[in-house]
Design goal:
mainly alpha
Length: 128
């Protein structure tokens, strides 16, 4: 039988925080499609569009950072073994991870769309 311990909720929080990487992958894909179109027309614009394409990846990095912090907090990383935390503490950690996980998904997709628009601008007016 599954025991709903503090460690379980904390590790669930780490997994939720890491979900921000899904949004980053989608956002980078959106921006990458636009970048491929611009670079196919003018390969010299590769450097300009690469920076814009990488921007949606930041949410995934934030989510991964929060997941690592949670894993350190519960003792899964660091070599000392799992730390006993109460169910309430685990629930608090889980609740604290929800904003980065859920908001990271949607904001990375929106940032990918904004980056794609910027990439298209670079394609039309490189000086802008």
């Amino acid at each position: 039988m599954l025991e709903l311990s503090g460690q379980f909720f904390a590790l669930l929080g780490a997994a939720v925080a890491a979900l921000a990487g899904i949004g980053s992958a989608i956002g980078i894909g959106i921006a990458g499609q636009a970048a491929a179109g611009v670079v196919s027309e003018d390969p010299n614009k590769f450097g300009q569009v690469l920076v814009l394409q990488a921007l949606p990846g930041t949410q995934g990095i934030y989510g991964l950072l929060i997941a690592f912090i949670i894993l350190l907090k519960v003792g899964l990383l660091g070599g000392d073994g799992m730390v006993d935390i109460s169910v309430a503490q685990g629930a608090f950690i889980f609740a604290a991870s929800l904003p980065i996980g859920l908001v990271g998904i949607f904001s990375a997709i929106a940032q990918g769309k904004a980056a794609a628009a910027g990439i298209m601008l670079v394609g039309k007016k490189p000086s802008e």
